[in-house]
Amino acid sequence: MNYGKRSLRPTAGFFLEVSLGVLLMFRLSGQVDAATVGALDGNRPPSFAAIAKKTMPVVANISTSAHRPGFFHESEAFCT
Amino acid sequence: MPFASVNGIHLRYDVAGRAAPRSPPVVFLHGLGSAAADWALQVPVFAERYRVITLDLRAHGESTDSTGRFTVEQMADDVGGLLAQLNEPPAHVVALSLGGCVALALALHHPAGVRSLTLVNAFAKYTPVGLRGALRSLRRMWLLWFAPMSSVADFVARGLFPKPEQRPYYEAAVASLSKNRRSTYFASIRAILAFNALDQLHAIRQPTLIVAGDRDQTVPRSAQTALHRAIPGSRLLVAPDSGHATPYDQAELFNRAVLEFIRKH
Description:
By secondary structure, chain A is mostly helical.
């Protein structure tokens, strides 16, 4: 009986250590990612609005082109 | 962005575009952990021709939630209540993932408010994409329990935008997803898992376009095929080289396809 109890302790300790290690790793990686993200664009947080501002001339051009062929007609291969 | 008091909560919304007040608006419903502002690649384009309404779903973005536990049907009631308050005619509803569930519930419970449906990587009942998808879901839940929200955001955003050239999209997604409260994320996942509209899809009468990213690792193609088969007259568009975030990774194709679909209805 005592033998069984003793053998559980290192196992439980091992799992506890691994869990704490993984948790710490994720916490650190999260902080690193957040810091990286913040640093990439100065102090401004990245956003889809910022991406839209950069790409909008292309997107707007597509939306306003009245003479393009119909989407569904040109893409029947993957549209049902 | 203004707020509307709907069903005991404050719903944040925005209206853009120069279209006439009584013309059908286009309503965008975002996905899990996202917000109205994340439709930035669509709003300016659609606003050229339509009045565009974006909103933060219950408990997302700056919208509030009084219960801490909610359903997809409640979220749909919020949207229906907002459109009624704004005195809007039936709307073209464009919805991604969780937003797709809300759009389905809206079409089923408030059919008079919906003119057409565009369901993007959506589902009537959630099932993961095979064993790999199930493992991803488990890992996300594990992170939600034990890691900071920035780690959850990092994990989700890497799945959405895995390519090196998609780095700006990844960063934007991390910034947006990191703003979520853990409780909101849990409550939304609970709402998704409880949602099942499979048996009611045949009752949807609105013209419906189903958009599926061809390499979506979050929602299996079978879920979208099920939508296509069950919703009468629906069309299925499979976007090439696209994951779960088709409005972002294929914005040009997506905008053009949806604009053409809406124009016809």
